[in-house]
Amino acid sequence: MNDSGVYSNEIPDSDVFSVQRGKWRSQLAESKSLRKQAVQLTIESDKFKYGYQWEWCGVPIIRHPDDIVLQQEIMWSLKPSKVIETGIARGGSVVLSHSLLRMIGGSGEVLGLDIQILPHAFSSLVPWTSSGKIVLEECDTSTEYAAKIVKGFVGPELAPMLMILDSNHTHDHVLAELLNLAPLLPNGSVVMVADTIIEEMPENHYPDRPWGRGNNPLTAVNRFLEINKDFSRSEDWSRRSLMGEFRDGILLKH
Asked: Which domains are seen in the chain, by residue range?
């Protein structure tokens, strides 16, 4: 047998590899010591604004690489027909969603909502907004007006969609967003709630922000799941990112 044959005998086939990865994922999700180190690394890297250093298709994206790959996995598995995002920031995240939709064979329709969309974001997104594939709307995402916009975007569509909530991170606002917008999604849809990691950060880590421990997206998610039994927390994706901001914040609509 040649060397390549010997080498290939040591490589598990797809079924065995899938089982192995399942065990590794479970062990990673349950490891308290690894999680402690990951949070500490997040704290240290935040001193250098690690989450602000990336781009997608030339547009700044305020997202950790772990979560960019995680969104790709979710979308490849879910095959959503459309994506709805709250929180535009620099614009890279809606471009990411558009390009991933196109990659999985969709039309690339993305709705981006934010209470204020700054001129630099509008300018960066012109190549996509001019084609009508990315639609931007300024509004408070907890309001009836936002719900009306989302209803119109969803339309009569029955295929699953992806919703990403990444705007104001206070408990009250995220809970209001979830109650206002998430029920509008078709069954089978996924909601990704960003910055649930705030609950794991040190006290007073965000001295200039209105959120912190006990008042953040994770506390809102936990309360929402108590109220709305049409949603459950994902076991497949919620703890996949090591340096991620969506831990325990990925929800499935039944």
From this structure: 31-253 (3.40.50.150)
